Amino acid sequence: MCSRMIEIQTQMSERAVELLNLPEGQPCYLLDVGCGSGLSGDYLSEEGHYWVGVDISSAMLDVALDREVEGDLLLGDMGHGMPFRPGTFDGCISISALQWLCNADKRSHSPPKRLHSFFSTLYSSLSRGARAVFQLYPENSEQLELITTQAMRAGFSGGMVVDYPNSSKAKKFFLCLFAGVAGVLPKGLGSETSDRTVPNQVQYSGQRCRFKNMKGKSLKKGRDWILEKKERRRRQGREVRADTKYTGRQRRPHF
């Protein structure tokens, strides 16, 4: 692997650990999902942490073994869930892996189900108050919506942190999730100079709570609310009835 790629991987690992907001000077037990050859694990070891790496590629894990990384390694498909006891880890990081769960590589693969299986078992394996940070390369906003929806369904709170939103090259997406205890979503790097016209993906986590926060205004069951909900379900891959002129229309009372 070229030195430039190693440098980028290390920088993203460093940022992910920063977003974990771990207690200073205290070794933690961390999970690295999609660990590959163990480059992120090297950074975790340098910082004094203990870690377990999970990856679907036996070839990449062989490289990690040859490199004599300090963490424990496990061969596994993240879409099948995480096989760890409840409360095992103090945090989780993942670099450039989560977006692969949005692909259906086999006919039996359902991206929403695989994402839910992963997030629900990950939630269980984290100690309460722990964070999970995923650096990812989403193809589009629908993919981000699918990922964040399944994470929230599994019990996580949090949302998307976007570093350098104005830059096409430096722009990085980090899904920052809180297990059990809601935290304050960190600000993205370079966001203080960001233009209001730049799309900000952080909004996704807040959409689910939007209607709860509007006290006294019941927007549920209105036509716009129903259409939005149906569209959201379509993006999740669910079967939804076609929209018609009767969608959301209020029925006359029957006596």
Automatic annotation (TrEMBL):
Question: Assembly state and interactors?
Answer: Heterodimer with TRMT112; this heterodimerization is necessary for the metabolic stability and activity of the catalytic subunit BUD23. Interacts with GRIP1.
Annotated source species? Amphiprion ocellaris
Q: Which reactions fall under this protein's catalytic activity? A: a guanosine in 18S rRNA + S-adenosyl-L-methionine = an N(7)-methylguanosine in 18S rRNA + S-adenosyl-L-homocysteine
Compartment list: Cytoplasm; Nucleus
Family indicated by similarity:
Belongs to the class I-like SAM-binding methyltransferase superfamily. BUD23/WBSCR22 family.
Chain ranges of the 18S rRNA (guanine(1575)-N(7))-methyltransferase Bud23 C-terminal domain: 177-252
Q: Which gene encodes it?
A: BUD23
* Entry protein name: 18S rRNA (guanine-N(7))-methyltransferase
Residue stretches making up the Methyltransferase type domain: 31-104
Q: What is its main location?
A: cytoplasm
> What does the entry list under GO cellular component?
cytoplasm; nucleolus
Q: What is the recorded function of this protein according to its Swiss-Prot or TrEMBL entry?
A: S-adenosyl-L-methionine-dependent methyltransferase that specifically methylates the N(7) position of a guanine in 18S rRNA. Requires the methyltransferase adapter protein TRM112 for full rRNA methyltransferase activity. Involved in the pre-rRNA processing steps leading to small-subunit rRNA production independently of its RNA-modifying catalytic activity. Important for biogenesis end export of the 40S ribosomal subunit independent on its methyltransferase activity. Locus-specific steroid receptor coactivator.
Offer one example of a GO biological process linked to this entry.
Answer: rRNA (guanine-N7)-methylation
Q: Which UniProt keywords apply?
A: Cytoplasm, Methyltransferase, Nucleus, S-adenosyl-L-methionine, Transferase
SUPFAM superfamilies listed in its UniProt record: S-adenosyl-L-methionine-dependent methyltransferases
User: Lineage of the native species?
Assistant: Eukaryota, Metazoa, Chordata, Craniata, Vertebrata
Which residue stretches does the UniProt record annotate as biased composition, category Basic and acidic residues? 237-246
What CDD domains is this protein classified in?
AdoMet_MTases
Q: Where is this region: Disordered?
A: 230-255
One of its Pfam families is Methyltransf_11
GO molecular function terms attached to this record = rRNA (guanine) methyltransferase activity
